Amino acid sequence: MRVPPGVSPRDFSEALKKFEGAIGKEWVFTSDDDINTYRDSYSPFWHEAEEPIPSAAVAPDNVEQVQQIVRIAGAHKIPLWTISTGKNLGYGGSAPLLGGSVVLDLKRMNRVIEVNDKNHYALVEPGVSYFDLYHYIHDRGLKVWIDPPDPGWGSLVGNALERGGGYTPMRDHFDCHCGMEVVLANGELVRTGMGALPNSKTWQQYKYGFGPYVDGIFSQSNLGVVTKMGFWLLPEPEAFLSGNVVVGKHDDLFAMVEIFANLMNSGIVLATTTVVSPLAYGPDPELAALRANGSTKDLEDYAARKKIGYWSVSLPFYGPADVVAAQWEYAKRKFSAIPGVRFEDRASYRFPLNDDQLAKIVNPVPFGVPSLQTFSIGGPRSQGHMWFSPIIPMTGEAILEAQKVFDQVAKDLSLSGGSVGGFPVWNFFARAFVIIYFFPIEHDVEKNRKNREVFRRLIKTAAEHGWGEYRTHTAFMGDIMDAYSFNNHSLLRLHETMKDALDPNGILSPGKNGIWPKGMRKARA
Amino acid sequence: MRHLAKTYEKGKGMKKARVVRAALVLLCSLSFAAAAFAGPDDAQIEKGHQVYNKWCFPCHGTGAGKPGTASLAARGQKPAVLEERTDLTPTVIKAFVRHGVLFMPTFRKTEISDADLDAIAAYLTRNNKP
Q1: Which residues pair with A432 in a beta bridge?
Q2: The CATH number, out of the four listed (1.10.10.350, 3.60.70.12, 3.30.70.100, 3.30.465.10), of the domain defined by the range A112-235
Q3: Which of A282, A357, A396, A522 could lock A257 by a disulfide, CB 3.0 to 4.6 Å apart?
Q4: Which chain B residue is nearest to residue A39, measuring alpha carbons?
Q5: Is-catalytic flag, A91?
Q6: Which chain B residue lies closest to A107 (C-alpha atoms)?
C-alpha cells in the first residue's frame, strides 16, 4: 500500500476507513489497477522514479461528501489532489504533483444545475464536461452556445479554474465565469459573488457581490475545492464569417499586428485566431532550405512567387449576418493601409448548423461544438504532449523577438531550428498574445529528460525577456512560479500567507502552481 | 440502431444464441438464477452502444476529426472504425480502456464503470464470429 508522505500506514488506513464511511467503499480506490488509471497518461516522467503516483483516490457524489472528505483529510493531514474530469492532458491529467497524494476525483459530481437561454448562463458541477453541457443544451433546443477548449472532455469548472481558453467571443473561460461555490480546507462552504446572498436571484448574472472579489484566489491555486461554478454563455449567433489577411513582406508584420490589435481592442474582432507565417510550414525542399539558410529577401521572393504571403491572420466574426459582413469590410479598410495586402474570403456559416454540415467540419470547436480533434496534433503514433505557453505583447516586434530568442535556445541545445514564425501565436486572451509550443511526450526516459531540460531552459530564457507562462504541466509549476519573482518573490509569499491561513494543515493540492504548505516548503535561495 | 440491425444480419449465430439464452432466462423468470445467464444480450449491447457514443465515438467514430480512427488507419488497422471490427475481444478492449495506448489515456471507473465497460465490450464484440 502506498502511503502519503509524512503519514503513517496506520493513520492512513484509519483515514481510508473514514473515507469509506463517508462516501461508500465503492468510491475509495486503493488497488494498483485503480491507481493506474489516475496516473498522468502524458507524464514527462514515464519509467522514472520521479513520476508522482497517488496513494489512493476518493470520488464523492455531492458537496456534503466533499466536506466530509476534507475534514477527514484535515484530521489525518492527508494531502488531497483535486481533479474535476481529470482529462487535463498535457498539464498533468488526473495525477497529483506530490506523489502519494489522495486524488479527490469530482467526476461523479456531474450535474447541470441550470441553463438559462434568456439571460444566457449555466450553473454546473465540476464533473460536467463540455460534451455533457453541449448535449444538455442541444437535446433541449436551447439557443445558447458553450465555448469549448480544444479537448471536449474537459470540465468547464476545471478549465476555467486553470484559466483555459476557447475560440468564440466567450473564449477567456475564467473571465466568463460568474459565481462559485467552494469548500474550504476546514470543510466550510462558501458561495462567492451574489451567491453569498441567501435566495439570490442573480448569482450567475452579477459577478462581484459585495466586498473583496475573491474568486481569483481559487483559480490555479490550492486554497479551496470548487464544487459549483456559473458561466456566461453566448446567445446562438446568426452567422459566422472568416476573412484572411495576407501580407507579402517580412516587415509588414508590424503594421499587420498593430491594426489587428486595434480591431481586437475596439471590439471588432472578439474571437480567437492566430498570426502565422505560411512560410513556416510545408514540405517543399526549397522552402525548407530557405528556412534554414535563406535571407529575408529570399523568403519574400519565395512568398511572392508562390503567392502565399509572408504573414497572414484569419479574422473570425460572430453575430448578425449583416453585422459580420460589415465588420469584415471595415477590417479590410483598415488593413488596406499595408501596400500589397491581399484579402481572402474564407468560411461562412448560418446557424444552427445541421448534422450534415457539422459532420464535414474537421474542427467544430470554434462553433461551440466540443471535439477531440486536437489529439491528432502529434500524429498517429503520438504518446502524448505538453505545452510551453508564454504570454508575449501583442506586437510584431514581440513576435519576432520571441522567435529569435527561442530559435537560439533550439540552436544552443542542438535542436532543429529555423522556425520563421513557426511558433503558433494566438490571441486566446484579450490584449496579449500567447505562444503555444508543442512538446512531445514519449515513453523514452532520455528523450523526456532532454525535453524537460529544454522546457526549463525556455522558462528561464522567457523570463529573462519579460515573458511568463500562463499555465503549465505540474512538472514545471515550481519553475514557473519561481520566475514570477518580483520583490523577492512577494507574490508567492502572499500566496503562501493565504495558504497558511486558509489551509493550515496543508491538505489541499500541495505544490499546485508552486504553492506549498508551510511544512513542505523548500528554503528559497 | 443502424449498427445493431447490421449485427443481426451478419451474426445469425449470435442472434440464435441470444434467442436460446432469452428462452432460458424466461424459464427462470422470477428466479435469482437468471443472473447466472448474464452474458451479452440486446439490452447490454444497446447500453454499450450508448456508452460507446458518449466515451469512444468522439475519437473512434466516423466522419471528420476523429484522431483515434485516423491513428488506427495510419497504422494499417482495418477497419479503422472500432464499431466495424469483428476481431476485438473483451479482454483487449478493457485493457485499452483501463491502461490506454499511445495518445489514448486511461479511463477511470468514475468515468466508465466496470458495468459500462462490460457493455462497451458487448457492443464492440457483437459482430464477432462465435
Answers
A1: A393
A2: 3.30.465.10
A3: A396
A4: B106
A5: yes
A6: B110
Name the closest residue on chain A to residue B64, using Cα atoms.
A362
With 50 as the cut, is the pLDDT of residue A232 above it? yes
Instruction: Please report, for the domain that includes residue B91, its CATH number.
Output: 1.10.760
Give A106 to chain B, closest Cα distance, Å. Answer: 9
Indicate the SS3 state at residue A149.
coil
- Could you tell me if B108 lies within 8 Å of chain A, comparing CB atoms? yes
Q: Which amino acid is at A151?
A: P
Mean pLDDT of B16-35: 36
Quote the pTM value. 0.92
The answer to whether residue B130 sits within a structural domain is no
**Which of A93, A152, A374 is nearest residue B105 as measured by Cβ atoms?**
A93
Longest dimension (CA), chain A: 75
What is the per-residue pLDDT for A523? 65
Residues of chain B numbered 13-42 and touching chain A (CB < 8 Å)? none
Q: Is residue B10 part of a domain?
A: yes
Catalytic site includes residue A471 = yes
The residue range of the domain holding B111 is 2-124
Contact check, Cβ <8 Å, B108/A107: yes
Residue B88 near chain A (CB below 8 Å): no
Q: What is the mean pLDDT of residues A424-449?
A: 91
B6 within some domain:
yes
Q: Kindly state the average pLDDT of the residues B92-115.
A: 97
Name the region of A324 (left: φ>0; alpha: ψ -120 to 50; beta: rest): alpha
Q: Do A376 and B75 touch (CB under 8 A)?
A: no
Taking the C-alpha atoms of residue A143 and residue A23, their distance in angstroms, rounded to an integer, is: 37
Strand partners, A102: A56, A80
Contact call for residues A55 and A3 (beta carbons, < 8 A): yes
Averaged pLDDT for residues A122-131 = 98
Statement: residue A197 has pLDDT above 50: yes
Q: Which helix (H) or strand (E) holds A122?
A: strand A121-124
Chain B residue at shortest CA distance from A360 = B64
Report the pLDDT value the prediction gives residue A525, as an integer from 0 to 100: 52
- CATH code for the part of the protein at A9-105: 3.30.43.10
**Cell 537560439 identifies what position?**
A408
Could you list the beta-strand ranges (E) of A351-458: 385-388, 390-393, 425-426, 432-435, 437-440
Residue A328 makes CB contacts below 8 A (sequence gap 6+) with: A241, A243, A315, A317
Instruction: Indicate which of B81, B101, B103, B107 best probes the interface with A, i.e. most A CBs within 10 Å of its own CB.
Output: B103
**ipTM strictly over 0.85?**
yes
In this prediction, residue A418 carries a pLDDT of: 46
CB pairs under 8 A between A and B: 95
Measured distance CA(A491)–CA(A193) in Å, rounded: 24
pLDDT digits (tens, 9 = 90+) for A131-178: 999 999 999 999 999 999 999 999 999 999 999 999 999 999 999 999
What average pLDDT does range A339-357 have in this prediction? 95
- pLDDT above 70 covers a percentage of chain A that reads 98
The candidate with the shortest Cα–Cα distance to A42, out of A389, A382, A456, A513, is A382
Residue B91 falls inside a structural domain: yes
Please check whether residue B107 is in contact with residue B67, taking contact to mean a CB–CB distance below 8 angstroms.
Answer: no
Mutate to test the interface with B, among A34, A42, A375 (most CBs of B within 10 A): A375
Mutate one of B101, B107, B110 to test the A interface: name it (highest A CB count within 10 A). Answer: B110
Note the pLDDT of residue A282. 82
Cα angle for residues A50, A56, A57 (degrees, 5° grid)? 115
Contact present, A101 and A81 (Cβ < 8 Å): yes
Nearest to A369 by CA among A168, A120, A87, A128: A168
